[in-house]
Amino acid sequence: MDNVYVFEGKTSTEAIEKGLKELKVAKSKVDIKILEQEDKRSFFSILSPRVVKVEMKLKEGIESKKDVKKHENKKPIEEADKKIAIQDIEKFLEEFLKWLPTKNLTYHIIEEESYIYINIEGEDTGYLIGYRGEVLNSIQTVISNIACKSNKEKIKVLVNIGGYREKREKDLQNLAGKIAGTVIKTRKSITLEPMSAYERKIIHTKLQENDKVKTYSVGEEPYRKVVVALKS
């Protein structure tokens, strides 16, 4: 399971400290569950070494420095696979853009080491973005499937239209700051509107260093929401 780790120690305290040290996160950033209690020892195990296991799960939107390093070292896309994927993407975009009502749309494909970035520019592209980026996310899903159809390994594709991603991220960061201020002032938790996993992560990341509020998600996709509450 993603973001779930098990650590061992002679006591639960030792196991937890070991886990926090290895993950390089604060205790408030994880949910902790004792898997084997210290007092559950039979007569025959008295002489055996004491081992206590604890499960540590990173809270949503939290990433350990261990995982950050793992992502930074993500395996690059093979050049041959990348070339095939880009050819398929270009073929699709040429046909797709040709049938759209907005003319003079242009696209640029940027080859990154571990993913393919596509930027579409032009006037009146709002309908390609949709409410809260719903249409844009659907286009990204389609292009991702096209990129992967001729390749054995999954290829990550990021699609941006008219700088929407940057604008949305800035808006969400500003919203997170304002919501945190309101929660601190009123001392009441606030539940935001449903967001995609990408947008929820922006909220979580923005507020994870705030020492007065905490964030967590509730509900099921696609109606999952972020809750901002006071830290106890």
Task: Give a description of the structure.
The structure is a single chain. The protein is an alpha+beta fold and about 230 residues long. The protein is built from 7 helices and 9 strands; from the N terminus they run βαββααββααβαβαββ. It has helices spanning about 10-25, 65-70, 80-100, 125-130, 135-150, 165-185, 195-205; strands at about 5-10, 30-35, 50-60, 105-110, 115-120, 155-160, 190, 215-220, 225-230. The strands form 3 sheets. The chain has a 3-stranded antiparallel beta sheet with strand order 1-3-2. A hairpin with a 6-residue loop joins β8 (about 215-220) and β9. α3 (about 80-100) packs across α5 (about 135-150). The radius of gyration is 23 Å and the shape is flat. Residues about 40-50 and about 70-75 have low confidence and may be disordered.
Short description:
With 232 residues, the protein is α+β, with helices and mostly antiparallel strands. It has helices at residues 12-23, 65-72, 79-98, 126-129, 134-148, 164-186, 197-207, and strands spanning 4-9, 30-34, 52-58, 106-111, 115-121, 156-161, 190-191, 213-218, 225-230. 40% of the residues lie in helices and 22% in strands.
